[in-house]
UniProtKB/TrEMBL annotation:
Family annotation (InterPro entries): NAD(P)-bd_dom (IPR016040), NAD(P)-bd_dom_sf (IPR036291)
Record protein name field: Putative NAD(P)-binding protein
Pfam families assigned: NAD_binding_10
Entry-linked Gene3D superfamilies: NAD(P)-binding Rossmann-like Domain
Highest taxon in the source lineage: Archaea
Domain spans labelled NAD(P)-binding: 25-212
Organism of origin: Halopiger aswanensis
Coiled coil: none
Residue stretches spanning the membrane: none
Length: 257
């Protein structure tokens, strides 16, 4: 059965019939924002964390189910995606020397394990948080910054490539420098790598990611995203996408006490 949006309309997009979603990397800052965005919708949300100590926190932020998973382990990825229609991937390596030297990073290995696990399941859409500075967007990040995190940038580039090759419907979101500022709802979205540069609130990125599977124009695209207030230079290759934000508005029945 196709769910209706909060205004009674029938949602559209590659994942219009979605009922259960996975937020991978939910205990990270963007993951927490995603839980907050998805909490009042009619979607059943499964969240993952590597720490049993964070289970209660994720439940308080709105997760209906919490799975403790290590995405370096393919079997954990398989269990996490089971019965899910959408994967929101916000996994990333915590601050460490690994961002510079690279090696075995969840930004590569974990994401690829999730993509592989999603193949052959009911997953209809995969939303992946990458970063400006990866691949064709390297000009959007200063050279010193690229050198400092060159290991993680290479890992994210490999993950992006694996997702594009997979055959899954996807949106890759490359945000600029993430901040904890309140949402501004003034995103500037570019495409093609050399498009936009600057900063963006995590809350705005989470809202855009949440809407992507229900937005036909976002399917199979790699998009750079910054806040208009956070622009560091004149944007180029800006795209106008009619994001399905109405699909992630509050479901009134779910919000009843």
């Amino acid at each position: 059965m196709t769910a209706t949006g909060p205004d009674g309309t029938t949602p559209s997009g590659p994942a219009a019939d979605a009922t259960r979603v996975l937020v991978a990397g939910a205990s990270g800052q963007t993951g927490i924002e995603l839980l907050s965005v998805l909490r009042p919708t009619d979607l059943t949300v499964r969240a993952t964390t590597r720490s049993y100590a964070k289970v209660d926190t994720l439940e308080r932020h709105g997760a209906d189910e919490v799975a403790v998973a290590d995405f370096f382990e393919p079997r954990d990825a398989v269990a996490a995606v089971r019965d899910c229609d959408i994967v929101y991937c916000a996994v990333g390596t915590p601050p460490s020397y690994r961002h510079t030297i690279g090696g075995k990073l969840v930004d590569r290995t974990g994401v690829i394990n999730l993509v592989t696990a999603a193949l052959g399941t009911k997953v209809s859409f995969f939303v992946h948080q990458s970063a400006i500075g990866v691949g064709s967007s390297k000009s959007g990040l200063s050279l010193p910054a690229r050198l400092l995190i060159r290991g993680s940038l290479r890992a994210k580039q490999d993950a992006e490539a694996a997702l594009r090759r997979s055959g899954l419907a996807y949106t890759i979101v490359r945000p600029g420098r993430l901040t904890n500022a309140p949402p501004r709802d003034d995103l500037v979205v570019g495409e093609g790598g050399d498009s936009v540069a600057g900063s963006v609130p995590r809350a705005d990125v989470a809202r855009l990611m949440a809407a992507a599977p229900f937005t036909p124009d976002a399917e199979n695209r790699t998009l750079e995203v910054v806040s208009r207030d956070g622009l560091a230079e004149t944007p180029t290759n800006v795209v106008d996408i009619d994001w399905a934000f109405d699909r992630i508005e509050a479901d009134r029945d779910r919000m009843q006490p």
